[in-house]
Specification:
Elements: H1 5-27, H2 43-63, H3 68-75, H4 82-88, H5 91-115, H6 134-157, H7 164-186, H8 193-221
Length: 226
Amino acid sequence: MTMHLGRTITTGVITAVLFIGIFAALNAGQPLRSDDTADPSNAPGLGFGLLGLLSVLSVVVSFGRRSSTHERQRREGAGPTFLIVLNEYSLGGILMMGLIQAACLSLTMLICRGFAVDTGAPGTLWAEFFSTPLPFLAVFAAAWASTNIGLAYLSVAMLVRTIVVLSILALFLFIGLGIAVMMAFGRLESADPVASFLASGLALLITIPLLIGARKLALAKAPARV
């Protein structure tokens, strides 16, 4: 299984630290801008949304690396591309990226729940975080699924990487995808733990073959020069 483990773990840790910092500020009632008013009770919902956004967008950082292959292509005038990394990472390595990112973010959410001012309404996922493992597993599965979605999208986006207009459109669609996932994650805070676990587990089961298919399509339709 080929993957750049150090890079992946580093990305997960950086994402986790960023998440804790933002959550702590919101949880303490500190506004992100001087003209904002921050209510600590909004921290959990915003935190879940931020978790979804980071899990999607962080895949760009994970693949934004340079290798000897990248450097050779740069010297030859064909700069490093995401597609090159698809060739360098095995399928198992690609799938492990989502798992590691999900582990980092779900553990981070557990830490944030420990010092949260608002402990949530009884019976909700946020309130039951320490009562049952289902909330943690739901967050883990959801974060893994959203990372898979980001990876699958970038894989398919490589098919239009040489067309400027379509590349720009793909970028805006990727940002829109991140916002959509963020909004979906924001609903987890007040959701039922069992329903959240089942929905997140189903999403994970759907996104794994989605990622496998997207990677296979990208490699078949636009093979990289190595």
